[in-house]
Amino acid sequence: MSFTSLRQWLIKLEEIGLLKHINREVALKHELAALGKRADGKYALRFNRVENSTMSVVTGILPSRETIALAMGVSKDEVVERFSKAQANPGECILVNSKDAPVKEKIVYGVDLGSLPIPIHHEKDGGPYITAGVLVAKDPQTGVRNVSIHRLQVLGPNRLGILILPRHLFQFFQSAEKEDKPLEVAIAIGLDPLVLLASQALTPPGVDEFTIASALYGHPLELVKCETVDLEVPAQAEIVLEGRILPRVREIEGPFGEYPRYYGPASPKPVIELTAMTSRRDPIYHTIVPATREHLLLGAIPREAGLLQTIRNTVPNVVSVHLTPGGGCRYHAVISIDKRNEGEAKNAIFAAFSSSHEIKHVVVVDKDVNIFEPEEVEWAIATRCQAGRDVFIVERALGNKLDPSSDDGISDKMGIDATVPLDAPPGRFERIRIPGEDEIRLEDYLD
Ligand code: MN
């Protein structure tokens, strides 16, 4: 059983007490994001009355790792493995008729973005931003689909500024622009958790991320043809914007409060001109407040899947990996291994650095340490690590440009081996333990 629409997922969240309604009128400028931030990591919010709009807005629909596990139908510990399997074995999508696609209940050709409740999230943001828009495009050369999320700034009633980092969409746009042609795009808003997660998969070029959503579902994702562009979008989406990225047009986009909790700067960026909007009769708008758990975890799970695979090739006895929220779920990796040979921790660190240029600091611990508990990890560093022996630094490697301490993306890397030496005298690192502590129920003893 999988949740194949935002609505189904919201019903589930409501059932388990993880969706709260706000019925007071809320302003789109800052107020909505501030409330979303307050609920961050705890529960999803549904805003039923938003200023100047008849649509309701949801945010925080994946407030924790536990809710991602629930959406995937696995336990919290199995999330990364499950994603990694889906990525290795993509499924197929099926095309449905417009009459069977809820996102075709309403079709509008003269798009006015003012009709959507698009919030301004952070103080210095350049304007309202669409943050949960899953963008679909096709490689102009091969016709293969690509799916990715981009920050989209409202620049006019039917114009969006877009940040395109040098990945797959960037290549598509470059080859279209070289021929002086626009690149057709469609932006789906209001999707279920698994399509959102699949869109973040770190795939080689030529892999359609929607096929990973099908693999996560265990059955085909339903797509429907767009009205004004030659693209397909999820039939169950709440809203779809269709349009074209214009060749040789740039307008100022930014600043924008980003995942490392700093602003990405304003600069000239490509522009999308919208041609149509299709939606459900009463669409629900989804916004992701940047740098919240929802934002960070969507990026973390696919990255952890890649990290685990890369380390496993070098250190087969790796147990688990965690990209921690304090590191923006990008810069800090904690890895646990079942150490068999001295030196393996360092090899795991090298593998982690090679898995992604974003990884900056890596801590390796033994398998008895719970890598999801920051206090446990700190304890391992405090008691199992000697800096002179166990810490090493590589200067001036490639890092992430959004890290403000980097030299325009040139960044130092640090590895910390916090594993117990294999030749330690017996008993020296024995963790204290109270027999029965794990099983005893305090409630049974309280009056
Ligand atoms: Mn891709």
Structural features:
447 residues, alpha+beta, Pnp Oxidase, Chain A, UbiD C-terminal domain-like, 2 domains, nine-stranded antiparallel β-sheet, five-stranded mixed β-sheet, 11 helices, binds manganese (II) ion
Shape: globular
| CATH topology assignment of the largest domain | Pnp Oxidase, Chain A
CATH homologous superfamily of the largest domain - what is it? Electron Transport, Fmn-binding Protein, Chain A
Which spans of ≥5 residues are poorly predicted at pLDDT below 50? none
Estimated helix fraction: 10-25%
Report the mean per-residue pLDDT as an integer: 97
CATH hierarchy class name of the largest domain: Mainly Beta
Query: Termini separation (Å)?
Result: 42 Å
Name of the CATH architecture of the largest domain: Roll
Instruction: Quickly count the helices.
Output: 11
Task: Write down the Rg.
Answer: 23 Å
**Topology, number of strands:** 23
Ligand catalogue: manganese (II) ion
